[in-house]
Known about the structure:
With 340 residues, the protein is of the alpha/beta class. The chain contains six helices and 17 strands. The strands form three sheets. A nine-stranded mixed beta sheet has the order 2-1-17-16-14-3-12-13-15. α5 crosses α6 (313-325). The protein starts with 26 loop residues before the first strand and ends with a strand.
Amino acid sequence: MRTADFDYHLPPEMIAQRPADPRDSSRLLILDRKRETLSHHIFRDLPNFLSPGDALVLNETRVLPARLRGHKIPTGGHVELLLLNRRSSRTWEALVGGKGLVVGRKISLSKEVKAEILEDLGGGRRVVRFNKSISPILNEMGEMPLPPYINTPLKDPNEYQTVFARRPGSAAAPTAGLHFTPEVLRAIETKGVAIVKITLHVGLDTFLPVNEEDPGEHPIHREWCQIAPQAVEVINNARSKGARIVAVGTTTVRTLETAARLTKPDHEVAPFEGATDLYILPGFQFHAVDAMITNFHLPRSTLLMMVSAFAGRDRVLKAYDVAMKEGYRFYSFGDAMLIL
Length: 340
């Protein structure tokens, strides 16, 4: 297995710059692994492919408006901070943009908000301490951290939030969830499908390409996740009755399979809270996930490798090729794929 095995060429015009409107009007490519078929649908058709008793698992993380702009003290040079991980009420790990951002450098973000670089973590990462808690005022002064391939400004910050986002903490949206509307969720519940909520706070490393020739040598990122006892009970009950666990997005897959590593012999998943370093590559044995809803991912990415582990590399790349020929939209605001 080589990283080059997960490469493909995507014409830039196929990268979605805006979300579908309405959200559930996005396209849905269904890959059926047993039948070896591909079929084309609209996302609002999703309830037709779920069965009573199934458990649909959603990631209810909420994206922080964590991009902050300021200037260096006293020179006035431009600085950009992207908050990644909160260490305390005033201290964050951040990705910084600007020159001369060394330890001890002071930054002004507004008349009331100042910051200082405490530690250099390598690359563009720094530990930053603010003069006051920044979380309560992020909605006022922060901007949404869109992926680098999206160049069109948002009309509304909520365009980059799922309709079920509840727990702030992500640097990026769990994009498979962006297709859902309240109407689709109600139709799913009406059909007798259990909707389960878990949390994984998405880090920016999710966008990093794998540069190593052997993907196994790639330093996989860690993300905080939680699956509560109530969610575990619903999931284990569904599986015990022969129903499917349908994961919405790679973040949900990562959380469920992390929880599956800790389970008892007669259960599918166990409660878990903490950082996960689970790296899913082809050859991985899935224990908790029966079906997956996901977007179309970047070439050479760990997310494409995870999807390939679930459905098979050749199947996935064939599906991507068909999607390109059929004019599907790719990446965060793009269309969706349901893998059965």
